[in-house]
Amino acid sequence: QVQLVESGGGLVQAGGSLRLSCAASGRIHSVYAMGWFRQAPGKEREFVAGISWSGSSPSYADSVKGRFTISRDNSKKAVFLQMNSLKPEDTAVYYCNAHYGAFIDPRGLQGYWGQGTQVTVSS
Q: CA of 72: how far to CAs of 62, 104, 108, 121, 123, in Å?
């Protein structure tokens, strides 16, 4: 089994910043993609950002491009999401995802999930 634990969520005013972290443990493959998804109340879970095993080729949802940056530290089995210029519409529970393979599946159909961390952006 693989465990993913997110941290870093909280309440922030519009225009502010937060940094989310996700640490993986357990029987994780040597090559795995990691990413972030989010789910707002009454909405389906959606892809936010993903990063390949090598750390190259990050991918982002159009709604967060230019504001969010994903990165990873393989030595710590961790992935991070730096969120700047936050907007009220970014309010959601953010989930970390990890699965075997070089590149993230933006459909969110593979792998393991964390328990989620709440991000609330006030206007």
A: 21, 13, 19, 24, 30
Please count the other Cβ atoms lying within 10 Å of the Cβ belonging to residue 89.
Answer: 11
Angstrom distance (rounded) from CA 48 to CA 44: 12
Alpha-carbon 78 to chain mean position: 11
CA distances to 6, 79, 112 from 26, in Å? 15, 15, 11
Q: What is the structure's pLDDT at 102?
A: 86
Q: Assess contact for 30 and 74: CB atoms under 8 A.
A: no
Share of the chain above pLDDT 90, in %: 81
Place of tokens 């070089």: 102
Distance, CA of 91 to CA of 94 (rounded, Å): 9
Q: How far is CA 89 from the centre of its chain?
A: 16
